[in-house]
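step=predict obj=Helix-turn-helix domain-containing protein n=740
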Amino acid sequence: MGKPKFTRRLAFVILPSFYIVVVLLSSIFIIMLIDTHRNYSNQANYKFAQTSAQTMDSWLKLIEQQVIMELDRDEKFRKFLYETESGTEAFQFLKTQLSQTFNKVVQFNPLIDSIYVYREIDQTVLSSRSFRQLGEFGDKEFVSRLAAKALPELWSSVRTYNEYYPLVEYKVEGQNVRVISYVRKVPLFMSKNGLLVININVNRLEALLRENAGDSVGYVRMVDSEGHIIAATTNIPGEAKVVSEVNSSVSGYFYESGWTSKDISEEMYSFLNFWMAVGIACVLAITIGMLWLLRRFAHPIDSLINRLTSKRQFNGLDFEYLDNLMDELIHQASEYHFASNQYQDITRKQWLREILTGERMISTEDWNARVHEEGVTQEWTTSQVMVFEIDRYKEFQEQYSPNDQSLFKFAIEQVVKETISEDNIRIWMSWLSSEQLTVMAQGEMLEQAQRIKHWVRLHLPFTVSIGISGLVNEPSQIAESREEALELLSYKATQGIDRIFTAVPDSGGSQLELLNVIESTSQAAYSLRMGTAGWREQMTQVFDTIELSITSRSKLLTLFQYMNFCLSKVIKEGPESYRDTFDKRIEPHLINLLDRFETVQEYRDGWLKAVSALADELERLRSGNQKYEVFKQIEQYMKACFHDPDLSLAKIAEHFCMSNSHMSRLIKEATGINWTDYVTELRVRHAKLLLSTTNKSVQEIGAECGYLHHVSFGRVFKKQVGFAPGDYRKQAVLKKETAV
């Protein structure tokens, strides 16, 4: 093995440097310690006095503010000051209440010995213990002296307080109490009708001062403006000097402090030689220790250098090569650590996704084993699944860039994590779809979900709806619980957005009403195509019916698709220009609306807007067509004569002085259907009205609609409507009963 060149050179560099630094630091330390110790000690002593002053002032200020605030908002206090009828029962009750208020304040703050208020109008004093004339009050001299002054407030010098002094029968051993008093003219913002006096127990104040001083080698004492000591720490020797003095801006008191022990610099001289000897011994011990450590821990480096020297042309102290070698090693280790963490994160997310989606079934034991691998000690308990869905997600995607969307989603993740974790609840969450964050947490989460939803509404430019499943007892039920939450979220189409769904809402509408939506849509579409009034009212009623029903979004989507199909079918049965208008201008908008709507109200507004535009366009097409004006006259005539069994195309053509072919072509161009279908449609529509609004027999209704034989009427009606006349009437009656 080669010689330890590296160890020797390292020792040659380190030891001299160490000795030089030790000597320099020791010299500087000794010199500066002597010269600056007094300054530092005086500054520390001043800080000690200042801290004590701030602490005591904060207590006095707090007492002042609490009492003033309590009494200022107490109507009984102001009423007591201005009440002139002092002999009434109400006044006696008022005194009792106010005295109780004083007692409550005294009990709340242990520094307060007593509180009393002096009324100038009758020179009476009410305290927490009694109510009496000023002449019978033990503190009358103090009150009389301050009542004559115009000062708004005052902290008094230390004094002796005895409430019962003038009355011999109330004299008790130890009744005299040393206090300082806070005096203020009252009420605060009106004409001054009295004095409020708050007496602070000096003994308790001194205990607080001692507690604040602790085991400090210094002392502090609280002195009033006349030089009397109010309170002081107990460890004040007779020869102690005052080092620092702080004047309180709150009370006007002075806080004096100093050191209780001898000057530390004097003690330092007596131990200086001893510490120098100890220092030299420590330097020698450190030298020996450093040599031993260098020998031990630099040995691997010497071995490495010797190995490199034996394999290449290498200077034993080529640190640049060693530095590059270590950088490469650290870089590779860092890359491996990053890749390992990334792989674990991906694996964890995939595992959670498979559990939430039901691709992986897991037992309680498997769950506990997996979370223990991740360092989580908490085992499986009853849990709940929540799904947070961003409302109006299509608008969210169009309005914000992908980066902004990611930031908003990260914000949702963080508020969910912080809100739930602050209750010491373990959570797992994953964006299983672009607009839905699935969260699993242990325990019930309704309160936390409400806080999260409120935070999102206040701080983010969008809202979220939340579906919360029931509690699950086994990990194998997690996927089922998520499906339950998703099912609950689907009801926001009729219930509205920015809501929390914890159960399927009670049904407010009937299934039968939803079935009749299709029929009403077809009737409204026919009115729209024919240019007759009432289609908007019909569709408004249709959407009102849908909004009253409790239906999931998937069912609503199917219903709206069929409504659009009915509208398309009826409109496209009209003239060619109607079909072109619907295909190019209306149908794309309705398809886009189906993809974007969040609630029934949103779909309703968009649908009515699109169909209103269609109605305006159809009206424009009709107004520019002279044949349509002729058809309007034909339509009026046919509505008056359709009940005639002998009604025929030839009869109508003869009435309007047209040929049969011309009449047939005119009806076809105006309605999109031939003469026979048009007459049948008029008769069936009238028959439906009579069946649902009258008690006439089927035979009578058939005759009124132009059918001599009820069999032929029933056959035609069933072909057009899909139900026999009798069945249609039963449904109409049932619909009315359900609506009631």
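step=describe
Residues 167-174, 508-512 have pLDDT under 50 and may be disordered.
step=end
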